[in-house]
Amino acid sequence: MTTPSGVTRLLLVCHASTSATARAAFPGDEPLDERGLRRAEGMARDLAPGPAACPAELRCVQTAAALGLRAEHDPLLADCDYGRWSGMTLGEVEAAEPEALASWLGDPGAAPHGGEPVTALLARVSGWLAARAPGRAVAVTHPAIIRAAVVHALGAPAQAFWRVDVAPLAQVRLTGRGGRWRLSYSP
C-alpha cells in the first residue's frame, strides 16, 4: 500500500519487558528479560522487515532485532534521563525523596533527580516528530518517548504526560500531514 503524497505514517513500538519493567523501576541500560524477548520474537511475523529508528539503549536495539527490524541509531529517541533515580523503584524514590518525587510528578518543568525534565523530553520528541519526512517509518523506543509523542499528537498540555500508559511492545500509529497528527493505539 502506498502512502498518499505529503502523509507521514509512523509506527511507534515500545521496547519489550526488562527486569526494570518487572520491578516498576526507573530503567538503566538493561537487556530484555526472557519473557520480553519471546514476546517480541512472536510479534516479528506481524511487521515487515526493514529499518527502524532506534535509540542506542540495549533494550530497544534487542527489541528491534527480535522484531526482525534493522536498528538505525537516532539519539533523539533516547529514554528520559532519570538521573540519580535510575534503577530505583517509584516506591524507593517516594520513601527516600517524597518532596522531590511530588515536585517531579506535579511540575513538568522540574528535574529534582538531576536528569531531564518532562518539558525538555516533550520538546525533544516534538522536534523529532516535526522532522519526519512523508512516507512510512517505524521507531522502536521507550514508554516515555511514546507518551511524549501522544501528548504532542493530541495537542495536550505537558501535565497529560502522566495520564498515558504505554505497555511493553505496545504499538502507537501516528498519521501526520502538515504538522497535524492522528493516532491509533494497539496494546
From TrEMBL:
Pfam families from the UniProt entry: His_Phos_1
Keywords: Signal
Record InterPro entries: His_Pase_superF_clade-1 (IPR013078), His_PPase_superfam (IPR029033)
Matching SMART domains: PGAM
Keyword Repressor: no
Signal sequence bounds: 1-24
Protein name: Histidine phosphatase family protein
